[in-house]
Specification:
Strand content: 5-15%
Radius of gyration: 29 Å
Structural class: alpha/beta
CATH architecture of the largest domain: 3-Layer(aba) Sandwich
Strand order of the largest sheet: 5-6-4-7-8-3-9
Number of strands: 22
Distance between the termini: 60 Å
Helix content: 40-55%
CATH class of the largest domain: Alpha Beta
Number of helices: 34
Number of domains: 4
Oligomer: single chain
CATH topology of the largest domain: Rossmann fold
């Protein structure tokens, strides 16, 4: 009998085997072993781990040798859907194959093979899956497999007599006892990273081989691409930094960062911080360091590292992709952008086969087959802390990589100890080098040590790459923060009072101005009143609005319009939410911000006199208090921010670093980091999942952005183009066009018309069509009632929102 691993439909509608099972098993093994990185360190012998990978891949599809699976695959006769399952059969065999040598590795093999098509579950529950029902299934499958034993032993190159002796059902009590001892007495955080790494190697190789997608070979990248674009930096001639232009100061900072590559122990350093003011060129500086570090690893450690660059927001991810592609414009390498709106067909550069099938391109994207990956915090951190099969496919790519994390101050404070500890162990066990960039220096590693690592007997010492960052901060005189927290006293009409008594007294017609609010509702209200204020005075200042209340399709165009208006000295006014706080390259003369976290305030200050115009030294950012900070960030943040600002009439930019450090010290002392500790405990005890996610904090419940059921996705059908996209979405759902066709031609534009809206504003909206209840729609006929071209979704102003982006 011929055994297949996969099948396909012929042009005549018949099903035939498309790949021999033995070829698939061999292909998976070859890919997994090729991807295996010798630099990992899980307190296990490397050759023994390689052997474990070989066993796992050899046995992972053993259950496909049953007639039940072959009948299912080739659609022959009546299908028994219980007996056609194949993962557990191979898991039992691998367990018995290994258990006499190493019971722990045997259990790991069983656990991984069991779940290679599923999500990982709580290790303590695995033995409960091995019950009487699963034993009956195994025994029926074994009867079928017996006729194929000779073929299997030849395919797997295992002696027939020995192979025959490992095919029996495991002892349930033994497995349960072993799991209890492991989880409750012998917890080791290294096991979490080991299991995820081996699981990732298997499922990535399995899916690549099944889809005939090539495993990408990382290319050598010349280390001087940033030098070619901006010139090679040098430290000579920079003894006195005062008075340097922005460009010269950028060159100095890049030169100092790069100089650390000459340190004798640089390849033994794994955790780096890059602390520098906004607008100092951290993106290209970090890339330059990463390229030169990659070259050094190649020459001295014979290792080609993948570069992974993660950022928090979509708009700055897209900007980063553009910047990287410009920098590498003449380099034949593959740059891959992987985030919510990633285009399977359009964003890859250097693809080996531009005509490859859709599913292969999708697999290339999902498994990070590229030299450089630019991705979101959601994709990155929910791969590192995850039980999900789809995400864990790329977990193994973190091994030996160079990881750049930008705008890390945007991470939630309650998660910082967990994030810091996870990054520490990612570097320790998987030989990853991590560069964390920020302008506000959140104490991620210090909190990790205080809350988690000290209890594990660990200490963390990240290396600061810009050692003169305090001096560099002290040089800047671009902006100054002016707390006027008691200026809004009218409880009923705070927006009116802000415009008439605060804005009117401080703004001048010739000055561009940024106003940042904490809530969408407040920002819309301020926008309406400022617009009316300008109309009544007959000024020609253009006014703009920016938040996630407007569709993504408009935001980038709007930022370009604002930038153009600034360059043309039209003194535009922008009312926005926190969407402008990171990576938005705009330069205003002055600004106002509702009180918020000090690091957020400083990020907004980075949009005031951003280009360091000496004629606009100490441009003002006024901080007011609409008493909405606590709704978004909580009481502790609100109180500590007011405390940090209290007593200061003015805070010059040279003092920003000091005030942010004191703020983080104070707020850390008063914050609870229980969720971080609980999630770490789940990682260490291999509690991948739980029925009670709210109280157990299993790995499966971790999200880098707090999920909320208070919001509904709403498609805005604002014009004929949107109507066309809505129709194509319907055609995809009912099967008139394929998913591939939709994704290729329409998906990205479709998603650019979706916003998230609090559910209490959506009661009267209908689903986008009768087949899709999750996405609601504002149709063309409802547009005037529900959507404003400038400020977005029209909200009931009496109901407040805590949507912060």
């Amino acid at each position: 009998m011929t055994y297949f691993s996969h099948s396909k439909e012929t042009e005549h509608g018949k099903i035939k085997g498309s790949k021999l099972l033995k070829n698939h098993i061999q292909g998976v093994k070859e890919k997994a072993l090729k991807q295996f990185y010798d630099g990992v360190n899980f307190n296990q012998d490397i050759e023994e781990l390689r052997y474990l990978v070989k066993v796992i891949t050899d046995f992972h599809d053993l259950g496909k040798y049953t007639s039940y699976f072959q009948d299912y695959l080739l659609q022959r006769g009546k299908i028994d859907f219980k007996l056609k399952q194949h993962s557990r059969f191979g898991g039992y065999a691998a367990y018995h194959f290994l258990k006499d040598e190493d019971e722990k590795k045997a259990f790991i093999a069983l656990f991984i093979i069991f779940h290679h098509h599923l999500q990982l579950i709580d290790l303590d529950d695995i033995a409960h899956k091995i019950n009487g029902n699963s034993q009956r299934i195994f025994e029926e499958q074994l009867k079928s497999v017996k006729s194929a034993l000779k073929t299997i032993s030849e395919d797997l190159e295992i002696e027939y007599k020995y192979f025959k002796n490992i095919l029996y059902f495991p002892n349930k009590q033994t497995l349960r006892k072993q799991a209890r001892v492991w989880v409750r007495r012998e917890q080791d955080i290294a096991d979490y990273f080991l299991i995820n790494y081996l699981f990732s190697l298997l499922i990535e190789a399995d899916k690549l081989d099944a889809s005939e997608t090539l495993l990408y070979n990382l290319k050598e990248i010349a280390q001087d691409w940033v030098d070619k674009r901006f010139g090679a930096p040098g430290l000579s001639g920079f003894q006195d930094l005062a008075g340097l232009s922005n460009n010269k100061l950028r060159n100095y900072c890049r030169a100092e960062v790069i100089s650390h590559l000459q340190d004798d122990d640089i390849l033994d350093q794994y955790l780096f911080t890059l602390t520098a003011p906004t607008g100092i060129g951290k993106t290209m500086t970090a890339l330059d360091f990463a390229l030169k570090l990659k070259s050094k690893l190649r020459s001295e450690r014979d290792h080609e590292a993948q570069i992974i660059y993660a950022l928090p927001f979509i708009n700055i991810i897209e900007q980063a992709i553009d910047e990287y592609q410009v920098t590498f414009s003449d380099e034949d390498l593959r740059i891959l952008g992987h985030y919510q709106f990633a285009d399977v067909f359009g964003i890859q550069k250097g693809s080996d086969d531009e005509s490859s099938a859709y599913h292969q391109k999708l697999m290339t994207l999902d498994t990070w087959q590229s030299d450089v990956v630019i991705t979101s915090f959601v994709q990155f951190f929910e791969t590192v802390i995850s039980n999900r099969n789809k995400l864990l496919k790329k977990f193994n790519h973190l091994a030996g990589s160079i990881i750049i994390l930008d705008e890390v101050q945007t991470l939630r404070l309650d998660q910082m100890p967990l994030i810091g500890a996870t990054l520490y162990y990612l570097a320790k066990f998987m030989d990853a080098r991590i560069i964390m960039m920020t302008a506000t220096k959140p104490k991620i590693f210090r909190l990790a040590e205080e809350e988690i690592l000290e209890n594990e007997g660990e200490s963390v010492y990240p290396k600061e790459l810009l050692t003169s960052h305090e001096k560099v901060f002290s040089l800047f005189e671009r902006s100054a923060i002016h707390p006027i927290l008691n200026s809004l006293t009218n409880e009923e009409e705070k927006s009116v009072q802000f415009v008439e008594e605060v804005f009117d007294l401080r703004w001048e017609i010739g000055k561009s101005c940024l106003i940042v609010c904490n809530t969408v509702n407040r920002s819309i209200e301020i926008y309406d009143k400022i617009k009316k204020y300008l109309e009544e005075r007959g000024t020609n200042n253009p006014i703009f609005y920016l938040s996630t209340n407007t569709i993504p399709a408009d935001r980038m165009d709007r930022i370009k319009e604002i930038k153009k208006a600034i360059e043309q000295k039209k003194a535009p006014i922008l009312i926005a939410t926190q969407v402008v706080e990171a990576g938005v390259d705009l330069d205003f003369d002055m600004g106002f911000r509702d009180v918020g976290p000090i690091d957020s305030i400083i990020q907004v200050a980075g949009r005031i006199n951003r280009n360091n115009n000496k004629t606009r030294q100490y441009s003002s950012l006024f901080i007011v208090d609409f008493e909405e900070c606590q709704k978004v960030y909580g009481q502790i943040t609100y109180r500590q921010s007011k405390k940090a600002l209290k007593g200061h009439e003015v805070i010059p930019e040279s003092d920003y670093l000091g005030i942010i450090e004191r703020y983080f010290d104070d707020i850390s002392e008063r914050s609870s980091f229980r969720t971080s500790r609980e999630y770490f405990k789940s990682m260490k005890s291999l509690k991948y999942d739980s029925d009670d996610k709210q109280n157990d904090y299993p790995v499966s419940a971790f999200r880098i952005i707090e999920e909320s059921d208070l919001y509904r996705p709403v498609f805005i059908e604002r014009d004929e183009e949107a109507s066309f996209l809505r129709e194509k979405y319907l055609e995809k759902i009912i099967g008139d066009i394929s998913r591939e066709d939709f994704d290729r031609n329409y998906k990205m534009d479709f998603q650019q018309h979706i916003i998230s809206v609090p559910h209490y504003y959506t009661d009267t909206l209908l689903p986008i069509n009768e087949y899709e209840e999750n996405i609601l729609v504002v149709s063309l006929t409802e547009l005037a009632e529900f959507y404003h071209e400038e400020s977005g979704f029209i909200r009931d102003q009496e109901t407040d929102s805590i949507m912060i982006l």
